[in-house]
Give the backbone structure.
Amino acid sequence: MAKVTVDGIQVEVANGATVLQACEAAGKEIPRFCYHERLSIAGNCRMCLVEVEKAPKPVASCGYPVMDGMVVKTDTEVVRRARRAVMEFLLINHPLDCPICDQGGECDLQDQAFAYGGDHSRYAENKRAVKDKYLGPLVKTVMTRCIQCTRCVRFATEVAGVPELGATARGENMEIGTYVEKALTSELSGNLIDICPVGALTSKPQAFTARPWELRKTDSIDVTDATGTNIRVHAKGPEVMRVLPRVNDAVNEEWMADKGRFSVDGLRRKRLDRPWVRVHGKLRQASWQDAFVAIARRLEGVKGERIGAVIGDLCDAESMVALGDLMTALGSPNVDCRQDGAQYDLGRREFYTFNSGIAGIEEADALLLVGTDPRHEAPVLNARIRKRWLAGAFPVGVIGTVGADLTYPAEMLGDRPSVLSGLLDGSVGFIEALRNAKRPMIVVGQAALTREDGAAVLAACWALAHQVGALLPDWHGFNVLHQAASRVGALDLGLVPRAGGRSVAGMMSGGVDVLWLLGADEIGAGRIGPDTFVVYQGHHGDAGAARADVILPGAAYTEKSGTYVNTEGRVQTAFQAVFPPGEAREDWRILRAFSEVVGHTLPYDDLDGVRRRLAEVNPVFARQGLPRFGGTDLSGPSGDLNAIGTAPFAQPVSDYYQTNTISRASETMAECSRVYARPVIQAAE
């Protein structure tokens, strides 16, 4: 450790730390534009100049290493003059168009100009203008505002793993852009907007819609994948205007995937805002009472085993436990959360969660991906894998079909589960990388579990984890990567068919007379038997609503307070940002109200009561945080290792931008799907 004195305050920092980090440890705020805590150091902007004792001139603190006994001054007249000069230089060509810039109000350049800007400039020549670049349908460019901090270049190359941005020309003629004009091919491109310190990169879908100070901000959780990204919903009046990430180093650091960020326009389109009942083959508007009565009449005389429920991918735990309790009250064992037919072993929670933890990826030293494409299933988690690969000595093996570059080198071992047998008997070379690792990690995806031999594949992966030493008292290297935000929470609640119950496939093939769909749109509604009475409860007029006999309008994730459990088993809470449209209501309230009509009143009347019920069903819902644990119980999940099939793994995600009801309703996501499904060079807008 090095002892450094900053403005008379002595601090200890690690050897190799920078002067800027020492200043922050002393509580001093240092202005910066190019420096970012999660990117490499560039030293471009020179805004972070400080005075170091015995140095001949001010130094750039972001790239200057500390030394023991160093004395730093951050607020002398020399420093202030230097920063004012840098600011004057940065503003030489800046257009100063704050009144029409979407970055206005949350712009680093504005803030620092307020502190260090002058009332005039000595530069009298004409300002330069730079042609705007085309970066795709998500990121808008006004490159005349660019100050060449290169944050975007470093993020694209280092974090996103897509080195498509760079600088061309030199000096005053330098410009940032793609070398060949095309759309950025990263699922994390929206983060460029967050890290840009000026208005050069802004959100194209949200251009000129609202100012930051007009927006109400509410903490929530992204439900478009199972990562559990911490987000902040920004609303204006009754509408969600944008979604930004919150910092959570244990889950998403400060990044967010494009689908969760830009699909918010889907919250306003194709919404269900009133109940509907099918009369003589046509859906007609109805009151809540009429809709409930229609369902109750159809349930009269129907035995419990002829009633079923399917849970969708975006549901909160409160609505799921309410539906489970209602089905239990009706005597139905037919409840299933696995729209895709995935096979899990619910004997222990570690059989279906990401046990290493997302942050634990950085501790692993070898990785095997089985039936998963994390770049498209969980882009933020994939960025963490890339971060670990950049640290060095991290071999990655893949079994399955990966449609695109993972953003880091990976050895393709094959596309069939028989490769697992080869690893177990030592005939596949990658087994040595796993055996030599101190903390090997195996990640099993949904493409491996939705097969007929999914249980066998799961058991084989556990056996492999045991064999290579991935199950240790202080390390649990067996992980399941989910795609659905609701899946782990539903499994924690035991929402799978009970004894004698039918799975999704069994219910859809005529196994039930009444089928309740809770936001379930990925089941292929056309396969539901023609004689099945379908109740659809959800927030979008998607496939499930089109097949329904009764539609009950629910609330989207931004319109209710809810509990979500991410792929690693972390329980997180989202808060209500706006109200549901029209007559739509929170899902658990709908189920509670209907339970009264059928004479099976659920035993809770408010949100606190529902959450007490959650903790009663599974104590995990009462826990905060995610305790780390090792693989102490080595007995594996049920599954016959000899039952592994020969068919290749399917593609985990066919279209990243069209995976749920919200993204399918989004015009922005539809445009992304068109652009990236058929990549073409487009002219700048």
